[in-house]
Amino acid sequence: MELFFHFMEPGFQREEGLAVMNASEILTWKERALDELRAADSLQAVEAARIKYLGSKGMIRDIMAGLKEAPPEERPAYGKNANAFRVEVLALVNERKESFQAQASTGKAETFDYTLPGRWRGIGSLHPITAITEKIVAIFRTMGFTVASGPDIETTFNNFDALNTPAGHPSRDPQDTFYLDNGDVLRTHTSPVQVRYMQAHRPPVRIIAPGRCYRRDTPDATHSANFHQVEGLYVDRNVSLADLKGDLSYFAAKLMGPDIKIRFRPHFFPFTEPSVEVDFSCHVCGGKGCRVCKQSGWIEILGAGMVDPEVFKAVGYDPNEVTGYAFGMGIERIAMVLYGIQDIRHIYENDERFLAQFA
User: Fold this and answer.
1) CB atoms within 10 A of CB 294
2) Domain spanning 128-358 has what CATH number?
3) Which of 53, 85, 152, 231 satisfies CB 3.0 to 4.6 Å to 190 for a cystine?
4) pLDDT digit string (tens) for 171-224?
5) Integer distance in angstroms from the first to the last C-alpha of the chain?
6) What pLDDT digit, counting tens, does each position of 6-21 carry?
7) What sign for the dihedral angle of Cα 85, 91, 92, 93?
8) How far apart are CA 8 and CA 14, in angstroms?
């Protein structure tokens, strides 16, 4: 009498008159067994599955016994799959037992309870650089400025030539500027955005341009090779230095408080004439002198000036028809002043303990 099998859920039994299991069906039952072991939520459940499949009356015993009943041409695959069934199920049984035993010894449960509420990690906050940039942009938007942007990789024309920077200027030196193999540069300031915008638009122009800049600075407490600037440009008929002072006074009051005063000091920039350095009265001591302002009562914030006629010529504007002012400020500089940050490197280290102070 021939031996035949029929497997039934949840158990199985030998019966007569039914088709013998083939090699592919063994693989199907193997996956069922492995899934059952993975889903086991206790040591007792693992042991029950072991008995069901590996026990003296288990499924694997009967599968192995059925090898001689398989057609001769299927016996190699049948035997291979039957052996894989036994080896893989035994390995997973041992793994799951060890896992539950380890949990018992440490008192920790491995299984995840999906009914438990999630762990609240709190709402994230803006990085101080992002927060200050957005605040500056928002202030200038109320004054009629629009946001402009440009690429980090610039031509030497846009970064230097169009901005009236002479060939021998120190800023062009490879010790100060990152040059690429094709002669382009990583922009050293956001001023090239002004050039690009004026080349593409006719006056009047009123833009604010925040972005990253790059210089070959040795990182220390106040310098970084990668930093952020906000550039401003206003071009129209009869724009004057008085317009610049009025707009920057309004900006200072909105950024640092209504009691802030502003002063201009003569300076030099290749792309503005006249040029000025702009100081705000110290918001900490009110101008009396303190550690933040180095006892001077003033804090240097930005550089500015009236756009040099040579810049207008480089972008196709007639300097006899229009005038304009430009300014630029370092975001990290403002962050250090506003928040009392002593070392600029703290801003870039992504230490959550440091960044959490600005939430």
Assistant:
1) 11
2) 3.30.930.10
3) 231
4) 999 999 999 999 999 999 999 999 999 999 999 999 999 999 999 988 888 788
5) 81
6) 344 444 444 343 345 7
7) positive
8) 10
3-state secondary structure of 276: strand
Q: 249-262 burial by CB neighbour count: b if 16+ within 10 A, else e?
A: eebbbbbbeeebeb
Range in 10-14, 39-43, 156-160 with the lowest mean pLDDT: 10-14
Task: Give which of 95, 101, 96, 77 is closest to 26, Cα–Cα.
Answer: 77
Q: Do residues 35 and 74 touch, judged by C-beta distance below 8 A?
A: no
How many angstroms separate the CA atoms of 151 and 165, rounded?
Answer: 20
Q: Could you tell me where the DSSP H helices lie in 107-188?
A: 128-141, 156-159
Task: Please say whether the beta carbons of 289 and 297 come within 8 A.
Answer: yes
Strand 323-330 relative to strand 226-236, pairing: antiparallel
How far, in Å, CA of 101 to CA of 87, rounded?
A: 21
- Write the single-letter amino acid at 72: P
Q: Choose among 222, 233, 234, 255: nearest CA to 150.
A: 233
Q: What whole-number distance in Å separates Cα of residue 134 and Cα of residue 142?
A: 13
What does the pLDDT look like over 221-253, one tens digit per residue?
A: 878 889 999 999 999 999 999 999 999 999 999
For the CA atoms of the chain, what is the radius of gyration?
37
Q: pTM for the full model?
A: 0.64
Instruction: Quick: pLDDT tens for 43-92.
Output: 888 888 888 888 888 888 888 888 788 788 888 888 888 888 888 888 98
Distance CA 86, CA 64 (A): 9
Task: Read off the tokens for 115.
Answer: 């009914």
Establish how many alpha carbons lie within 13 A of residue 271's alpha carbon, considering only the half-sphere containing its beta carbon: 27
**d(C-alpha 305, C-alpha 240), whole Å:** 10
